[in-house]
Amino acid sequence: MTTIRPGGKTRIQREKRQAIFEAALDVFSEAGLRGATLDRIAAKAGLSKPNVVYYFDGKEAIYRDLLEALLDIWIDPLRQLSAEGDPVEELIAYVHRKLDMSRDMPRESRLFATEMIQNAPHISDVLSGTLKALVDEKTALIQSWANAGRIAKVDPYHLIFSIWATTQHYADFDVQVRGVLGEAREAARFDEAKVFLTTLFERLLRP
Fold first, then answer.
1. What is the value of pTM for the model shown?
2. Is-contact 18 7, C-beta < 8 A?
């Protein structure tokens, strides 16, 4: 669950705002901003529409707050990539953190994916600003590891893209993964994915 730190002067106000965020996360991750309605968000939150409007000007305001909270959470695993650790272990740990987020925060992942599919109209400035700056910093670190022979020579940008693609797939396409694996393997899908992705990226990265 995404913890938003909702504003409000009283405990009841904070609780209602958090309920709205939780309901909106469900609705937006299923329908996107265009398909979502305040009526649907209110019903999901167990509140009246006027009660939702009391806290937010409209669904766009809720959506923006959710995206801002999500983006900060979403890039934190990359921030944790450290120059002090063993390069292969650091990158495998990053893979694990991203996969754990797909397991624990599937709605958040799908909301982010929906925004990307729609050409990121609400966060394009962040993608080319804050996110790019962080990725540039970490790809420079990965490149330095490759130049020093501490990992195999890889394109650091495409390495990060591959980690995003292979880990977030398990959230964004969860219904497909479960459908193909079947009920017998459904419960173990993230454990199996972690073993497979660890092997995949270790073989790619070992010099």
1. 0.84
2. no
